[in-house]
User: Fold this.
Amino acid sequence: MTADPRQIAVERAVKVAALARLAREIGIAEALAVIATAGGVTPRESVAAVCQSRQQQMIVELNRLEQEGRGRAAPMLVARKFVADPRDPIEVEILARDL
Assistant:
């Protein structure tokens, strides 16, 4: 039984579009999980590495702002930059307090 070439072309186009959309929407954590799984690193180690990297980035940013003279405002500025939802004042306050 021979498949209709038009149907094959449509299926291929749908797959390409779905993969392109997935590639745009995939998050950093998911991408790192895929890469880590291929590299022999466990998912737990990969997540820990992402968290540690994020924490280091926050500390570097905090130090930079403090050196610029931002002082007590620095933790709030860093929290607004690194929080998942910058419009959520409670989440921002919790992260600022942790810094």
In short: Residues 23 and 31 are 9 Å apart (CA to CA). The mean pLDDT is 78.
